[in-house]
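Standup notes, protein team

Yesterday: finished cleaning the Ilyodon furcidens set.
Today: Sulfotransferase structure.
Blockers: none.

Input for Sulfotransferase:
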Amino acid sequence: FDKMELPPRPKLFDFHGVSMVHFFTQNWENVQNFQARPDDILIATYPKAGTTWVSQILDMLYFGQTSPERLTTLPIYERVPFLEMTIPNLVTGKDQADELPTTPRLIKTHFPVQFVPKSFWEQNCRIIYVARNAKDNMVSYYHFDCMNQGQPEAGDWNSFFQRFMDGNMVFGSWYDHVNGWWKKKETYSNMFYEDMIEDTGREIDKLCTFIGLSPSAEEKEKVTSGVQFDNMKNNKMANYSTLPIMNFKVSPFMRKGKVGDWKNYFTVAQNEQFDADYKKKMKDRTLQLRCVI
Ligand code: A3P
């Protein structure tokens, strides 16, 4: 793994109407034919919306008592496989998911809703979609593309800003992703990054209700404190520091963990342009994402 020669940065291309890179499309047939089990839990997000945070919460809730060694010996990407991931010389996310020994299996995807293997719906799996306000999501994605050799070049901030609005990102347009999932909201549970920042304990309670767990007060406290930003940032098994494809000197994976960091990047003119465009693309008023709290 450490000796793995880093592949060149991938290029974006159109895949069934969504801009993608080959790392997430090459195993398409196998991924589409993935056999879900009724107790599987799928964590679905647009990249940088809080995937790792919710993954760590779920893993701690389910296995923190019964197999705590998992949490200290296995990195998050082994505990919660990334279903569509297909990087040369690494086991595919699909094979990892097939071989997961846990019940339930926790599985991560960044697919837009129309790409999710149909077995998850047929088996009535519990699905959790995490969304984050577009402005912070964009800023977080920018830093991620700067530091991650597995992503296309980020370019400068101004061009990234335009590309994000145009939907030329890995896993496509944020707007299409969030709108597409929102249309199916009756079939899964939604979580919002901003709500988790506001009151992590409250959101963990809601999550527990959805998945049918009732941890003791002590267990819950352990999870809540274990997933605080600084604790996850310092946790080698949650912070991705073991992946050579990411260059933490450029930017750490656990970067800031804040709501409203966009204000440090958007110019006044960009903010106006963004808001006008957002209004056109996000017509469903039942979906309200908070970019300040
Ligand atoms: P920032 O880049 O804004 O800091 P994902 O896991 O979907 O890739 O999302 C990564 C983003 O979630 C990063 O945002 C990261 O810092 C943030 N994050 C991860 N764990 C967090 C936590 N425990 N509390 C707050 N933010 C967290």
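Follow-up from PR in the comments: The radius of gyration is 18 Å.
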